């Protein structure tokens, strides 16, 4: 139970980051000066109390800790479930020996999670470190974004990742709220379902707006 709670709480922290990040990205529509000023400002928040990039590093540490806790809990819970089945395949019973071996939710969470972690590594090398510089390396975060998303397969790669994020969020939000005790009645169940879908739609569409607007030449 403690592991499920850790899974839920670390997941909710990551959801909070996703909402803030998606919202921040929409600044590309305000133009290069606004976007670069925003990226710069993120590094100055809290000064002089905190050193330069101080808050950013606090956020990075919290995010990394959340990702580690989330993956650790996932792996331990998965192993425990496998052991509890005593080697039998999932949902295997005397009645349905070859029943559904894999549910939609567990499939998207497990494989989706792996896709997302691979995406994050690629994404950091691309837009944070600029080691992978699609369309040309530059010191301007705005130019990094606009250069990259003029290339159709970069947009396609991000789109696949955002679909994985969306599916993960849909089931993860539902699961986290259930773990934390919000799923108490049919009405509450409906409410958390609506919340999970609404959140997923806002985050997924919000993330995809800048890449598609850039690909279609609406942002230059
Ligand atoms: C189309 C979708 C996305 C776009 C356009 C985008 C854009 C960016 C940009 C421009 C940066 C660099 C900001 C800077 O250096 O000032 C960044 C950093 C980052 N992004 Fe994204 N992002 C997207 C989706 C995501 C998703 C889905 C995740 C997580 C699953 C994510 C996680 C991160 C992280 C962890 C950083 C590093 C923050 C830091 O420590 O500096 N991004 N993103």
| Tally of separate domains | 1
Radius of gyration: 20 Å
Using the 3D structure, state the CATH architecture: Up-down Bundle
Query: How many individual β-strands?
Result: 0
Order of helices and strands: HHHHHHH
Helical content band = over 70%
Small molecules in complex: protoporphyrin IX containing FE
> What is CATH's topology name?
3 helical TM bundles of succinate and fumarate reductases
Compute the average pLDDT: 91
Give a short summary of the structure.
The chain is mainly α. It has helices spanning 2-25, 32-42, 54-84, 104-128, 141-148, 152-179, 186-215.
Features:
220 residues, mainly alpha, 3 helical TM bundles of succinate and fumarate reductases, 7 helices, 0% strand, binds protoporphyrin IX containing FE
Commentary on this structure:
The protein is an all-alpha fold. The protein has helices spanning about 1-25, 30-40, 55-85, 105-130, 140-150, 150-180, 185-215. It has a single domain (about 1-90, about 105-215), classed as 3 helical TM bundles of succinate and fumarate reductases (Up-down Bundle). The chain is built from seven helices and no strands. The longest helix has about 30 residues, at about 55-85. Protoporphyrin IX containing FE binds near residues 116, 123, 158, 207 and 211.
